[in-house]
């Protein structure tokens, strides 16, 4: 175990760096094309024509999650064979499935089914409601609360920094709020190509539905601690991880406080294990004595 090292697993790709496929091929340890083909057949998804240069499937929510899971697990397999295990792992949002895979709590196929089943259940719960998620930079939490107070469906679902958040809400209210925030000095606003409001309060009355999903599959005790970005605690037992999977889809996350907490507990090197470099970008908003590396940039030896 490498003291001071944590591996973090992102939720989905917003934009590929373009180096991901070559990095995995170069390792000679994972047949990425076969894994993509087999995963698509397992889930009944047509993803065989994935092309990283075209950035296709970025707008297809389920397919993007599945491909991101495949990339994270493939990078994890390379790391597992080339390096000692980290001190802990953590999954950002839907990155929890790859984190559990690397920690040995689930097998690869189980992760595929969890991605699909949670996604389809969230879509069923929404019953046609149209939601939007967007990152907002430039306001603290109290300011955002004040601006969004008149929009009942809007809430802060992720904190990335003291002035960097992700908001979620029904489309008309989110569009009105984003316009207001822009007029009031937002530094940056970026809507996501997402219709599923993961971590939102609308899902909190449906824990029984998510528990049913988790109970279908084998979740084992993890071989190393899994740090929760919900309550900032380390989880390892099967029971703890089952509860974490249920809460992960319906509770807000705090990436900012998670990195700070892990840093206080001795983690001084974070490696983003997956496609894109979204977590690396978010880490720029966090103060602390640590190094943050994204494998997809090609600057971390694998």
How would you portray this structure in words?
With 302 residues, the chain is an alpha/beta fold. The protein folds into 2 domains: 2-126 and 201-297, 3-Layer(aba) Sandwich (Malonyl-Coenzyme A Acyl Carrier Protein, domain 2), CATH 3.40.366.10; 131-191, Malonyl-CoA ACP transacylase, ACP-binding (Alpha-Beta Plaits), CATH 3.30.70.250. It is 41% helix and 18% strand. The protein contains 11 helices and 11 strands. Strands 8-7-2-1-10-11 form a 6-stranded mixed β-sheet. A 5-stranded mixed β-sheet has the order 6-3-5-4-9. A hairpin with a 2-residue loop joins β4 (155-161) and β5. α2 crosses α3 (61-82) and α8 (207-215) packs across α9 (238-248). The protein starts with a strand and ends in an 8-residue tail after the last strand. The model has no long low-confidence stretch (mean pLDDT 94).
CATH H-level homologous superfamily name of the largest domain: Malonyl-Coenzyme A Acyl Carrier Protein, domain 2
How many discrete structural domains?
2
Class from helix and strand fractions? alpha/beta
Based on Cα principal axes, name the global outline. Answer: globular
What value does the Rg take, in angstroms? 18 Å
CATH fold naming of the largest domain: Malonyl-Coenzyme A Acyl Carrier Protein, domain 2
Strand order of the largest sheet: 8-7-2-1-10-11
The overall pLDDT, averaged over residues, is 94
Low-confidence residue ranges: none
Helix content: 40-55%
Name the CATH class of the largest domain. Alpha Beta
Count of distinct strands: 11
Number of helices: 11
């Amino acid at each position: 175990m490498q003291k001071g090292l944590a591996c973090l697993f992102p939720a989905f790709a917003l934009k590929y760096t373009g180096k991901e496929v070559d990095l995995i091929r170069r390792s000679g340890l994972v047949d990425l094309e076969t894994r993509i083909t087999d995963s698509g057949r397992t889930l009944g998804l047509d993803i065989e024509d994935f092309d990283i240069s075209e950035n296709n499937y970025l707008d297809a929510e389920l397919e993007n999650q599945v491909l991101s899971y495949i990339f994270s697990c493939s990078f994890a397999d390379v790391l597992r064979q080339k390096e000692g295990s980290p001190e802990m792992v953590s999954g950002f949002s839907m990155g929890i499935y790859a984190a559990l895979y690397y920690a040995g709590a689930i097998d690869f196929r189980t992760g595929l089914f969890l991605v699909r089943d949670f996604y389809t259940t969230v879509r069923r719960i929404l019953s046609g409601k149209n939601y939007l998620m967007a990152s907002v930079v430039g306001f603290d939490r109290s300011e955002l609360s004040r601006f969004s107070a008149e929009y009942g469906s809007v809430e802060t679902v992720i904190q990335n920094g003291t002035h960097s958040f992700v908001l979620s809400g029904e489309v008309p209210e989110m569009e009105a709020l984003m316009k207001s925030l822009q007029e009031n000095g937002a530094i940056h606003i970026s809507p996501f190509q997402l219709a599923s409001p993961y971590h939102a309060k609308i899902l909190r009355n449906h824990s029984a539905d998510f528990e049913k999903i988790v109970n279908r599959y084998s979740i084992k005790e993890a071989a190393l601690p899994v740090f929760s970005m919900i309550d900032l605690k380390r989880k390892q037992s099967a029971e703890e991880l089952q509860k974490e999977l249920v809460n992960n889809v319906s509770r807000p996350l705090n990436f900012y406080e998670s990195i700070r907490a892990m840093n206080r507990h001795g983690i001084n090197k974070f490696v983003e294990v997956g496609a894109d470099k979204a977590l690396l970008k978010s880490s720029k908003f966090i103060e602390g004595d640590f190094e943050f590396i994204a494998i997809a940039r090609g600057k971390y030896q694998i």
